[in-house]
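User:
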Amino acid sequence: MKKHKKEHHEEHVDESWLIPYADLLTLLLALFIILFASSKVDAKKYDIIMKSLNSAFTGGSAPFATSNLVPLDISPNVDKSKQDQSSENTKEKQEQKDKQQQQMEKEKQELEELKKKLDAYISDNKLVAELETKLTNDRLIITIRDKALFDSGSAAIKADSQKLGVAIADMLGQYPGYQIEVAGYTDNVPISKGEFSDNWDLSTKRALNFMKVVLARKTLDPSFFSSTGYGEYRPVDTNATVEGRGNNRRVEVSVVRNIKAPE
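Assistant: Predicted structure:
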């Protein structure tokens, strides 16, 4: 009787689970790629991608089928045209800032020069008690006490004071392009009689008359000039003393900077 050899069959491990597992990994990879790229694509492309992914999960065609393939832009999230525009805007702002700085320095230098000329004129003509100058961060102020220009209670420029207005006009004419503000002020002593109803009226007329004397120099542009009166309401000293009231009665000529300097 023949002996039959037992046939040994090699046992195979069931690897069928690898297929869905690989599919799952593929889908997860696709999901991570989409999440990474979602901030770098426009809304329309993002919609298409999400529909493609949804189709894959619900039994439709695979997310990477040719019909649903969407090119992903995974380059750095920089729009070149916007970047160029931003760079151009930054450049323009810097140029504007540089121009303003240059203009500010120019005005500072010019007003310092004008102040020196005015101070020299005041000193040479022994007008220290009647005139003074002050340079601030936004203007040069020329203060003229009322006794240098007017008789008491009058807004008419004294004949021998006309030359003061002319001298100031000549110096202002050397530095064109500034707004010139002429302002009148009084003390708080009420107007008792005359052509003016109150101190406000008097201060306004005094400022206007002095401005007209300055503008008699035709080299100056009237469109840069303005005048106003503040009456007794902006004192620089006490009204309780004769000296204080004398300081409050004044005309101020302000040469205003176009670009205000830092404090």
